Amino acid sequence: MREKLFHYLTTTNAHYIGILYILLSIINFVLAGIAAMYMRLTIANTPPGSPVQDPFNELLYTWFMSLHGLGMLLLFAMQAVAGAANILVPKLIGAPDMYWPRINALSFWMQVPATVFMWSSLLFWQHGDSIGWTLYPPLSTISKSIGVDLILLGIIIAGFSSTLTGINFILTITRLRRPDIKMLDMSLFAWSVLAASMLMVTALPPLAAGAIMLLLERHLGMHFFTPVPGDPAASGDPRLFQHIFWFFGHPEVYILVLPAMGLVSEVIQRMARRRAYGYTAIAISSVAIASISFAVWMHHMFTAVQDFAPRVAMAIATMAVAIPSGVKVFNWVATLYGGRIQLKAPMLFMLTFLLFFIVGGVTGVFFPVITLDLHLHDTYFVLGHFHYIVNAIAFGVFGALLYYFPHLTGRWYDERLARISWALITVGGFATYTLMSAAGVLGSPRRYAAAPTPDVNPYHFAMTAFTIILAAGVALLFANLLYSYFNGRPVANREDPWGVSKYGLPDVIPPLVHPRHEPNPWPFILGVGMIPLGLGVLSLLRDVSPILKNYAFLSAPQFGMLAIGTFIGLGVAWLFLDQFKTAKMLRLMNGAAHFEIPKPPSVWGDLKASVSWVIMSEIALFGTLISSAYYARVVLYDGWNAALANLPQLITPISIAMSIALWSSSFTAMVARRNFLKGNLKGFYAWLAATMALGIFFVGGQFLIEYPELAHHGFVYGTSIIANYFYAIVTLHGFHVIVGLVFWALVALFVAVGYWRPNRPDGVEAAEYYWHFVDAIWVLLFITFYVGAINGITPVAARA
């Protein structure tokens, strides 16, 4: 038992990491389900229109409401999808493993502190208001509970983890797919994961940016989202957070539903014993859905946005996103037509996915009708529509879990119990969400801890009853799988237990190379180490935060410094005791470090491709913050003008010298790379030293000279909306310059040991890519703040 535990704690094998993801997702599913049951029982036990009575406390109800939504979406669903993809994608494309095995393990272990932070927030429910799963200000900025900060930390860590996971899947599918498998012949599940991963890379950084902005407002008084009475120059706008959240929130739905669609595509064609109809159309529609999903975020804000043009544009885009979804449904139904369908439990779950998805899609078509949306917004009709889709995702995951269960365990589940659980989940879910929709049409608002009027009370009571049926079905399903894992009937042919390998692509395509899976404890140590890291950050904020001053357990700032320093020390130890050591051993190999033979042929770069996708996520992060500043300039026009009165001169000799130094470093970096390609290592190190010296001058000038000088003129964060955006974005850029300097230092070390060589320059070229990106961002920031381009913008209303 001890050996097995150590194996799972140190594994870098995608198969076992996928199992860990699924186990953690089940834990979060149960916890989020308990939260949902608490909410339903609260409403059922509270007379209509009356205050909530103990033990069903109204404040506690809102905390469960918040954690139910966040737990189901960001924890259960994301982890279940990542788990299924870890297990299936390498097998379906003939890859030896994930592209970054150790980073893949780190991504999972980062989900553990995210889970701990989110659910531990419930311990502080009596200290202040909850914030809802959408995190809307002003509740999220004025709540006095540290539980809100724990939720935000969990969101940031989970978002970082999922972004790394998305990049990892993109690289795995594009770099490690067997060369004889063409893209358009690739598994439909792999296609859906590829599309969802692109959304992860571009949609999750905006959420992290919003969470960071909330933390800055809560503890440093940087009002991005809330007005300041009597001080328009320092006031923010709460609608900005809605834009940020839903720019993430709507693609997030497709991050979850696309892999579920891929699972449905895989299982349906096998259980129907017929290759999927319109194979290419199903694959391309996944990319189309991912692309259009970014153009529909504002339909969640029709009651907040008054302008006619954006409303119409978002309504049209909302209708358009239904087209590729309809393509999938048509092709699934066409696949069933004429097939020899096996109505086993996996197929029943997949067919019910179609039912729930179609009904959820049809109810969603109501929302682009703006006048109707204004009536239905924030009612139970929205909950009904959303839960149809979310339950459809759960049906896809459950059906795939049953289908692949004999593959994974070598044992059969109990078919009869699986059918009973399917029936209970179907009846309970469909009735619950239909009643939600009906109550919404009658005007029942969401987020209430009691039925507002007697006429909708029977609907809420019935919802609670059917939710119990739904929960019983889920419990029976998990109990069936758990019992079958130990006592199920053995499978005769584990490679093809269903006898359907000839339909579509096989479930397992053997790789051309085999990975070396050595135990590695560092991902576990660094991942779980983010728990003290997060508490350390809050500890450093305690002395300046009016909210955190009341929490003695955060102790003194010395604890924060120790926690952060220990985490950095562990990171350095991982680098030198593991990564650097591995590089020295593999310096003579012309391949990726985790494979025994040279990397498979591909037109994609190695580390260059990796860093390119990292840069894509960074563009989304900076794009969110910079566009937020321009939004504030336009929407808070008078307040921004008031702030201009106290704006000091930003173009100074030190800012000009800093900028020239940073931009010049792009030239020295390019010359360093050219010397490296020519084999002139002496010249490479000389120009690299010049590059790093210029970068150090920039960072030192910014933090040691420019910031103190601006503070001397009264320009500090919290004093104005301009100062808030300036310090937030410019400081973030300075942090990226430091990251770039560390990147260059690591490249120099790896060149010194011979891992990167002129005939394998990927590390040097990747560092140059990142450095050029950092310099390009500074061009945009210099023009925006220092030249003052943002100050010259005049909104249309002001021109009139």
TrEMBL record:
InterPro entries hit by this protein: Cyt_c_oxase-like_su1_dom (IPR023616), Cyt_c_oxase-like_su1_sf (IPR036927), Cyt_C_Oxase_1 (IPR000883), Cyt_c_Oxase_su1_BS (IPR023615), Cyt_c_oxidase-like_su3 (IPR000298), Cyt_c_oxidase_su3-like_sf (IPR035973), Cyt_c_oxidase_su3_a-hlx (IPR013833)
Keyword Oxidoreductase: no
Major site of localization recorded for this protein: membrane
Record-annotated membrane-spanning stretches: 20-41, 61-85, 106-126, 146-167, 188-216, 244-264, 276-300, 312-336, 348-370, 382-405, 417-439, 459-483, 522-541, 553-577, 611-631, 651-672, 684-705, 711-730, 737-756, 776-798
Entry-linked PROSITE patterns: COX1, COX1_CUB, COX3
Residues of the Heme-copper oxidase subunit III family profile domain: 512-790
One GO molecular-function entry: metal ion binding
Membrane association type: Multi-pass membrane protein
Keywords: Cell membrane, Copper, Electron transport, Heme, Iron, Membrane, Metal-binding, Respiratory chain, Translocase, Transmembrane, Transmembrane helix, Transport
GO biological process, one term: respiratory electron transport chain
One GO cellular component, as annotated: plasma membrane
The family this protein is said to belong to: Belongs to the heme-copper respiratory oxidase family.
PANTHER family per record: CYTOCHROME C OXIDASE SUBUNIT 1
UniProt-recorded name of the protein: cytochrome-c oxidase
Organism of this sequence: Pyrobaculum aerophilum (strain ATCC 51768 / DSM 7523 / JCM 9630 / CIP 104966 / NBRC 100827 / IM2)
